[in-house]
Design goal:
91% of the residues lie in helices and 0% in strands.
């Protein structure tokens, strides 16, 4: 029984192993792409923040110079410039907040898409695994119900392997196998 289970594991690995590795590769690529996108977005945010800081600093410095030169003229002019600075700071803060929200939303969307893709791939793997196991069970049930010669059993397993691989048995090989079987049946 253990030999049969060991053979089942080998057959399962032969039949489904490449699909699992393919799905694992796809998942790894998607995770890598998601990480790269996340890094790219973070880098862009840092660039925007840096440029906005420089812009705010340059505007603040400019306003301070103007304030020094106008300080002697009127108190009203000074108050107006402070209001402009506050509005600019408010707009920059609002822009940064909006940018952060947009990035967070995009990240959530990408995360949801990744999760959906992963779940779909896992469902596909389960479906393929179930189909393979059902086919194996059907073949083993046929073997248990009727006595099959070693030659016939080898042919069945070979044909199953070829079908799973997606190719048909070469017609010449099939004709040779049919001739061999006919020769054994009719002495």
């Amino acid at each position: 029984m253990r030999d049969r289970l060991g053979n089942l594991d080998k057959i399962r690995d032969i039949l489904v192993g490449s699909h699992l590795r393919d799905y694992d590769g796809r998942m790894d690529r998607m995770e890598s792409e998601l990480a790269l996108m996340h890094q790219d977005i973070s880098d862009r945010i840092d660039e925007v923040k840096s440029s906005l800081r420089l812009e705010i600093q340059s505007v603040a410095e400019s306003l301070e110079k103007q304030t020094r030169s106008i300080a002697n003229t009127t108190q009203e002019s000074l108050a107006d410039q402070r209001q402009q600075l506050d509005r600019l700071n408010s707009r920059v803060s609002t822009s940064i907040t909006n940018l952060d929200e947009a990035i967070e939303q995009k990240t959530k969307t990408l995360r949801n898409q990744f999760t959906e893709s992963r779940d779909k791939l896992q469902d596909d793997i389960r479906t393929v695994r179930t189909q393979v196991l059902e086919e194996l069970e059907n073949r083993f049930a046929m073997l248990r119900d009727g006595k099959v010669a070693k030659q016939d059993m080898a042919e069945i397993l070979f044909e199953l392997g070829m079908r799973l691989k997606g190719s048909e048995v070469v017609p010449v090989l099939q004709a040779a196998v049919d001739t061999e079987i006919s020769a054994e049946i009719m002495p």
